């Protein structure tokens, strides 16, 4: 489902811009739903790892750090887009966010696969 959500998230904005259907509310809604997806996804992962390994485990601490980095990069990408920044004006956080956006589906899949392999999630009943 992650690749599908990423493709659809990209496609809706492109279609709106292509056909002149974009609006301020639509842009706000797109950013809002992106953020809510991120919060729900991260919260679910935190909860599941907490159940299996505990809050002070290396698994939990590392995923909190990874999601914090993803959050900073994502926020920087929104800032760069909204301000119309050019690549030559990017700071490191903007560049990080740009690459994060390009490869988000792969990042989520690799993260989840590595944590499942490490036994960080509760076993299915």
UniProtKB/TrEMBL annotation:
Any Pfam family hit: CDP-OH_P_transf
Alphabetically list the UniProt keywords: Membrane, Transferase, Transmembrane, Transmembrane helix
Keyword Transmembrane helix assigned? yes
Gene3D superfamilies of this UniProt entry? 1.20.120.1760
Q: Which residues cross the membrane?
A: 56-78, 103-124
Pull one GO CC term from this UniProt entry.
membrane
Q: Which residues form a coiled coil?
A: none
* PROSITE patterns associated with the record: CDP_ALCOHOL_P_TRANSF (PS00379)
Which GO MF terms does the UniProt record name?
Answer: phosphotransferase activity, for other substituted phosphate groups
Q: Name one GO biological process term.
A: phospholipid biosynthetic process
| InterPro entries, A to Z | CDP-OH_P_trans, CDP-OH_PTrfase_TM_dom, CDP_ALCOHOL_P_TRANSF_CS
Q: Does the keyword Transmembrane apply?
A: yes
Into which family does the record put it? Belongs to the CDP-alcohol phosphatidyltransferase class-I family.
Listed name of the protein: CDP-alcohol phosphatidyltransferase
Q: What is the lineage of its organism?
A: Eukaryota, Sar, Stramenopiles, Ochrophyta, Bolidophyceae
């Amino acid at each position: 489902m992650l690749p599908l959500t990423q493709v659809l998230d990209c496609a809706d904005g492109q279609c709106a811009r292509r056909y002149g259907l974009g609006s301020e509310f639509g842009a706000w809604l797109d950013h809002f739903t992106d953020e809510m997806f991120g919060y729900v996804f991260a919260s679910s992962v935190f909860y599941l790892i907490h159940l299996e390994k505990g809050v002070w485990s290396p698994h939990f601490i590392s995923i909190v750090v990874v999601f914090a980095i993803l959050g900073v990069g994502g926020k920087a990408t929104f800032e760069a887009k909204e301000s119309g920044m050019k690549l030559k004006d990017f700071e490191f956080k903007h560049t990080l966010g740009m690459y994060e956006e390009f490869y988000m589906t792969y990042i989520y899949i690799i993260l989840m696969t590595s944590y499942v392999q490490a036994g960080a999630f509760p076993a299915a009943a």
